[in-house]
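User: Can you predict the 3D structure of MOT14 protein? Sequence below.
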Amino acid sequence: MYASREDIGYDFGDDSKVGSKPIKPNPNIDGGWAWMIVLSSFLVHILIMGSQMALGILNVEWLEEFNQSRGLTAWVSSLSMGITLIVGPFIGLFISMCGCRKTAIIGGILNALGWILSAYASNVHYLFLTFGVTAGVGSGMVYLPAVVMVGQYFQKRRALAQGLSTTGTGFGAFLMTALLKYLCTEFGWRNAMFIQGAISLNLCVCGALMRPLFPKDVVSEKHVVRSNSEDNQAKGLSHSAETIKSNGVLSEEPENKEEATNEEVLDSVQHIEIGGKSRNGKSMYGLRILKTVSQLTLTVRKGFAVWYSSYFGAASLFTNRIFVAFIIWALFAYSSFVIPFIHLPEIVKQYNLSSQNNIFPLTSIIAIVHIFGKVILGIISDLPCISTWNVFLMANFTLVTCILTLPLMQTYVTLAVVCALIGFSSGYFSLMPVVTEDLVGTKHLANAYGIIICANGISALLGPPFAGWIYDMTHKYDFSFYISGLLYMVGIIFLLIQPCIQKKQPREKSMEEAQV
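Assistant: Sure. Here are the predicted C-alpha cells for MOT14 protein:
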C-alpha cells in the first residue's frame, strides 16, 4: 500500500468547503459518454503510438533515399517518439488554458501538417524539423488529453478504461505497419506520408469527442450570475474566486483583485450591450472586441496560474515525495522496454534462431501479449480487494527480472516464454495514469502525468543510443540488458523507499508531540 494525497497532507484546495451547493453526480461518470471517451482515446493510440511503432518501414525508405548513416537517420523517429512525451509539461499548460478538446484538435492539425510537410523532404535534417519536431509536438498535444480525459470520466473502473484505451497502441502497431508498407509499395514513401497526414486529421475528430465533464449546476449558476444586474456583481466575483480555488490555485489577494477587475470589465461590457442598442455599430463592435480580449486574458491568466502553482507554488507537485520518486522511476523504466525491441533480432542471429523467429517473431509475441496484459492488469486493479499500487509494483518486478534473465536464454522456446512475460508485465503502462491520479488527484492529473511522460520521453530518447554505446564498447548485447535492468531496479527501489519514509515521519512527529 502507498500513502494517498490525503495521507501526506497534500492540499489541493477542495471547493466543497466553500459553502457551495452539493452537486449531483454526473451520469456520464463510469458510463454513458465515458465510453465514447475510451473509444476516442483508443483511436488516438492507434493513430499516434501505432504509427510511431511502424516507423521502421519509413526508416528503410529514408536510408535508401538520402544515403545517410543509420545513426543519423534513426534520430528522425527517435525525435518524434521522444518529443511526443517530453512536451508533456508544456501541453499541461495548454490544457489548463484551453481544455482537453481544443488542445487535441490543434494537436491533430499540427500532427497532420508534420506528416504532409515531410512528404516534401529534401534531406534528413528537413525531417528533423517537420516530422521529428512538428509532428512530435502535435502528437503530444493529442496524446496527453486522451489519457487525462479517461481519468476524468472514470472513478470505479479507471484501470480497465485506461487498459482498453491503451490497447490501441498494440492494434495500431499491426494496422499501421501493414498500411505504411502497402502505401510505400504502391505509391512511394512521399505519397504514403501525404496520405498518412490526411488520415491523421481524424485526430481532430477524436479531439471533438472529448466533451468537457462539467457539473450542470455549476454551468447554470454561472449563467445566472452573468445575466444578473449590478446588484449581483459581488456574487459573480465570489463565484469566480470559487472557480479558481476549485482548479487548485492558492487564493491570493493581488490575483483576486486583478481577476475581479476582469470580471467587472466583462459585466460592464454586457450591461452596455444591453442598454446601448441605440448606439452606432462601430462602438458596439469595439465593445465586443474588448469583451473577447478580456475573456481571453482571464482564461489565459487562470490557466497559467493553475499550471504555475502545480510546479512552483506552495502546493507544488514536487512537494509530494512519492511523486518525485515516481518521476525518478520513469526516467529508467521506458528504455528497459524499448531495448528488447532493438536488440532481439541480433540475439536471434547470434544463437542461430532466425528460421524459427521468421515463422513467429519474438517482437510480435511481446506486442500481442502486451495487449492482453493491459486489459487483464486493469481488470485485476479494479477489484475492490486489490491495490493498484501493489499490482503496479509486481508488474515492474516481473519486467525487470525478465530483462535481466533474457540474455541467459539460448533457445527459441525459452526466449519466447521470457518475451511473453515481458509483454504481459509491461501492461502496467495502462496503470500509470491511475497511479498518478491516486497520488495527486484528478485536477492535477494533466500536469502530473505530463511530467511522468516527459521522463519517459527522455528515457526513450537516450536509452537506445546508450545501449548502442555499450555494445560498441563491449561488443556484447548482454551488457545492454544488464545495465538497463540494474538502472530500472534503482527506480523501483525509489518507489519502495519513499512510502516507508513517508509513513515513518508522521509516527516520529506524533511521538515528539506526545513527549511535549
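Confidence is low (pLDDT under 50) at residues 1-23, 215-261, 501-516. The chain is about 80% helix and 0% strand.
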